[in-house]
Fold this protein.
Amino acid sequence: MDIRLKNVCFVLPTYNEAANIETTISNIYRIGNTLNKYKIFILVVDDNSPDGTQKVVKRLIKEYKNLEMITGHKQGLGNAYKRGFEFALTHLKADIVFQMDSDGQHDARLIPKFLDYIEKGFDLIIGSRFVQGGSTPDFSLWRKFLSKLGNLLVRYVGGVSSIKDCTSGYRCIKADFLKRENIRSLSTTGYSFQSALLCELNAQGAKTVEIPIIFNQRVSGASKLSLKDQIEFLLNIPRLGFRNYQDFIRYSLVGCSGVFINMGIYFLLTRYVGLSQYLSPIISIECAVLSNFFLNNFWTFQGRNLKESLIMKMIKFHSIAGLSGLTNYVIFLSLLVGFSTNDLIANLIGIAVGAVLNYLINSNWTWRKFDQS
């Protein structure tokens, strides 16, 4: 019985890499040929390099099996990756996608280690310069400072504080996560694409691990990081924060709708149906819980935690909502019976306290980004 090999595609964006691309490709295939469970593809995404990069790759295509190239106008690293991912997923049927620099600064000998973590159940493996064992020996003090500062901004504004290296260009990603995300919709086109993609994968719940890498010195040529890329990176930082802010606004709006549903149903049950003041809050609370769950699942946090079934997520949500709902009910009864508070006011106070408890637990457990292992 034949076992289907997993398709692993290395996406290599290039611009003026004629002096480096052959070594990078040969190193990947040298390691890839030792991996019996995988079928190795390399996709070069060239932005019409004027130095003859395409000529080198066309010659190599005749020598290596499963080496592909697509070309286009120079529109930034992010756009190159968008085109490359789309081609890898639709034409090469990739199961696993690598991001890797084409200039030789990423060590191909680490490829088996990346894939080992895929086999262990991780969805995103990051080659990290900033975890123990990683380093940037050839960075100047100024570049080290800028790199660390940029990472700090992405980590804490973008909501990925557990990740040490948010701008690494050496990554291994399960293709399923790229299929879920509309890559073309990411607004970044340059180097800031790396941090934007990380935040989106994080929002999708990708199980992530960082492995140490030594970021080697470029063999030939100069860095392509331009002033325009640096400006785009800074402008993208508020966007990352605004995306999280939008989630908070949506969560708050859903919570407000739950208040109206709770109060409205309670009012109808007590004033028109004739149910008692002791039974009506139980029904109105449950109706609000169900409404909040479906709105949060299909609107606020759409696309997150896709691995779990709707029923399982509903059970988890109810376990927290049950605690906050119980708090709501106890406060309601305490105010109604113990302090003779108006029943509508007592219910509103109970809702407010329960809502705060619900948010604190949900934001730190139910919808936390992902577990960093």
